[in-house]
Amino acid sequence: MGELVALPGMLTLARESRGWTQADLSGEMTRLAAGETVSQGYVSRAEAGRLVVKDERLALFAAALRYTPEMLCRTTDINGVGVGLIHHRKRASLGALALRRVHATLSVTRLQVEAIATAAHDDDKHRFRSIAVDDVDTPADAAETLRLEWGLPSGPVANLVEVLESAGALLVLRDLQTRELDGVSQWSRGDRPLFLLNSSAPADRFRFSLAHELGHIVMHAEPGDARLQERQADQFAAEFLMPHESILPDLQPGLDLSRLMKLKSRWRVSMAALAFRAKSLGVLSEWQYRSLTVEMSALGYRTKEPGPFERETPRHLADAVTRLTRQHHLDLSQAAHLAGLELGEFCEIYSCPSSIPVTEGSPVSPTGR
After folding, report:
1. At residue 6, does pLDDT exceed 90?
2. Each residue of 77-100: pLDDT tens digit?
């Protein structure tokens, strides 16, 4: 194997995935360098490709960023994951710097899951396709079409995560270090769709957020009017999770909070989503809907609704890790090294089985920060 040399773009991507400025990184490198000062200017020149980062300096970058040296030498199409090709369900208050961190995290996660899937000889087939929408073929039509193609029965979707993983999607649940964004997704047409979901988002928003991202994936292959695409993704999610023909009998006139609570348990979406669905289907008038939302807000339901349910957990990549250890005879430290991560963070993200051993002296330290 040739000499390891960091790629400038990968250094930037790794730093942004940690939510750090160049000054933050230089400070951490100085702390680890035992008396040597690493300037912000040095980090800037390294990221600009104006100096070569290898050997001890590569090791220092890797230790500070908590990635392996090999990860910092990976080739990635950084310019190919621009904002226009990434979909996300976020609040308007999410700042630009935080959004860059999430986008960088998505790019790094893509590299990690590709390494895991390739090593585990994971089948890369999937059943996703683009579905065009316009004034005639609506987002609701797209949702109905996809449900039919995937053979989903009428009524509530029992386990949305399982449905998407069975269709070939890659799902990763991790803390995105913000409460302003529930999920982000990307589908480069040569790969499987990737969904990165925020573990700190409320569980009763989880399924709708995931269905919203699914809508983006299948309907929005190109950048467009962001507000329109967000509305379309919401309409898709509502029909995919609450098909109008199935849910209308449940949305009886006289809908109140008690009834919404029962429906929340059955349909596994938030009371707010159910109320909005009832309004969009004409069961609730605008005035009735506003009255319900005011009542829910007064009770604090906009922050935390009653009647929580268990979050669905992705399993496909965790199963791939298990295959790596049991069939391909890697220990967890070696599997973590493939993904370019320290063991602690790797297991936190990819749900390492507790029965798998860790070999002393593996390339990645099991200690995290």
Report:
1. yes
2. 544 443 334 666 555 567 778 888
Helix or strand run (H / E) with residue 366: none
**Could you give the CA distance from residue 267 to residue 273 in angstroms, rounded to a whole number?**
10
Model pTM? 0.89
Length of the chain: 369
Q: At what angle do helices 22-32 and 55-65 cross, to 10 degrees?
A: 110
Element (H, E) at 181: strand 181-186
**Which pLDDT value is given to residue 77?**
59
Per DSSP bridges, beta strands 181-186 and 86-90 are: antiparallel
Greatest alpha-carbon span in the chain:
72
Which residue intervals of the chain are DSSP H helices? 8-17, 22-32, 40-47, 55-65, 96-119, 139-149, 160-166, 203-219, 226-241, 244-247, 257-267, 271-280, 286-298, 316-326, 332-338, 343-350
All domains in the chain, ordered by first residue: 1-75 (1.10.260.40)
